[in-house]
Amino acid sequence: MPPAYQQTFQKSEQQLASAQYLLNVTYRTIQDPKLLIGVITTLFSSLEHALTAVLIYERSLLLIPAYENNFEKKFTLFRSNSAKRNHLPQKHIELIKKIHSLTELHKTSPVEFQRGNKLILCDKKYQLEPLTLELAQNYVELTHQFLNIIAKIIKIKRKQ
Q1: pTM, rounded to two decimals
Q2: How many CB atoms lie within 10 A of CB 115?
Q3: Residues 6+ apart with CB under 8 A from 127
Q4: How far apart are CA 139 and CA 142, in angstroms?
Q5: Residues 119, 124, 128, 129: is their CA dihedral positive or negative?
Q6: Number of neighbouring beta carbons within 10 Å of residue 20
Q7: What span, in angstroms and rounded, lies between the C-alpha atoms of 105 and 107?
Q8: What pLDDT, in 10s, does the model give residues 32-61?
Q9: What's the distance, CA 23 to chain centroid?
Q10: What is the CATH number of the domain that holds 112?
Q11: In a domain, 11, yes or no
Q12: Is residue 159 part of a domain?
């Protein structure tokens, strides 16, 4: 049986593959911007599994202390220890924050609507956050790059 960090990383890869399928096949067939939030939610799951895999790996090497299993605490530990130690590009930290904020906005948004081929999310102050196909494609590509970096950190050979 593979170590826990490998299993967690495999879940991350599966979630990324699901997001890519949802974007490249389902979205292109149906053309419904509401599917973009599904892509974002799946990407968040992929990113969270990937950073958890690093934390499990580093915990097994006794590089980090024990941590609670909630996203905020894991992300803080990841950003302050793992990201710095492994010289992760800031764009990937920003990606995780952005995807997390979009998923939280979706959960708490009083209003969501379509405008053309965009999904518009509103916060409680009615600040608008558009979600487009191009943004979703960019997030998928950045997530793919992030998983490649994580695979190198935890020494997993990854299919390209």
Answers
A1: 0.93
A2: 10
A3: none
A4: 5
A5: negative
A6: 19
A7: 5
A8: 999 999 999 999 999 999 999 999 999 998
A9: 15
A10: 1.20.120.330
A11: yes
A12: no
Strand-pair category, 128-131 with 118-122: antiparallel
Is residue 137 one of the residues assigned to a domain? Answer: yes
Residue 113's beta-bridge partner residues?
120
Q: Which domain holds residue 71?
A: 4-153
90-110: pLDDT as tens digits: 999 999 999 999 999 999 999
Q: How many domains does the chain have?
A: 1
Tokens of 104: 């939280």
Report which secondary-structure segment, H or E, holds 9. helix 4-21
Strand partners of residue 118: 115
SS3 helix, strand, coil % of the chain, rounded to 5? 70, 10, 25
Tens digit of each residue's pLDDT (9 = 90 or more) over 77-89: 999 999 999 999 9
Residue 160 has pLDDT above 80, yes or no: no
The SS3 of residue 130 is strand
Tokens 């930290």 belong to residue: 93
Cβ contact 131:102 at 8 Å: yes
Angle at 15 (CA atoms; ends 71, 145), nearest 5 degrees: 85
Instruction: Say how far apart CA 144 and CA 141 lie, in whole Å.
Output: 5
Amino acid type, 132: T
